[in-house]
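stuck on this:

***
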Amino acid sequence: MLKIILPSIMLLPLTWLSNNKNMWINVTSYSFMISLLSAMLLWQNDMNILNFSLLFSTDSLSSPLIILTTWLLPLMLLASQNHMKKESELNKKFYISMLVTLQILLIMTFSANELILFYILFEATLIPTLIIITRWGNQTERLNAGLYFLFYTLIGSIPLLIALIYIQNLTGTLNFLLFPLTLMPFNQTWSNNILWLACMMAFLI
C-alpha cells in the first residue's frame, strides 16, 4: 500500500513548491499517474490478499474503492479549476492540499485491517471534507450544510464505536486477519441483529 500512499503524500510538497503557472498541470498529471499505478490492484483474486502489513492490506473488495478514490482526485482537480479561478494562489494551494489529504485518508481507510483504525481514519476524513464544504461550497447555506454533515456523521458513528468495543471485548481482536483464528460466539439472536444495525448505521447515514 505504500506504493500508493507515498506518491499521494508527495502531492503535498508538489502543490506548495510548484509555481503558480504550472501548479494545476503538475498536480493533475501526477495524480493521473497515481491513478494508473493503482490499477495494478485489480489483478488479484479472493485468495490472494495483498498483505502489506498487519495494519494495511487490500483485497477484491477494497481494491475497487481505492482505485475509485485515486481516480476521483484528478477529476475533481479538472472540474474545480474554473471555479477556483478568482481565488488567491494561497487558497488554491490550500484547496488542493485538502483534496490530497482526503485522498490519503480514504486510501488508508479502505486498506485498514484493524477495525478501530478504520473507524479513526473514517472519522478523520470528516475534517478535510468539512473544510471543503464550508469554505468552497457553492450554496450560501454551506455553513449549515457543513454543520449538519458533521453532527449527523458523528452521531451516526457512535453506535459503530460501541459495537466495535463490544466485538473487541467478545473476541479479543478487531483485526480482519485474526478473525478466522478466533472463536466467533455470535448466535442468531435479536441482540446480534442490533449489533449488525449499529455497525451499519454510520454508513446508512
In short: The chain has a mean pLDDT of 85.
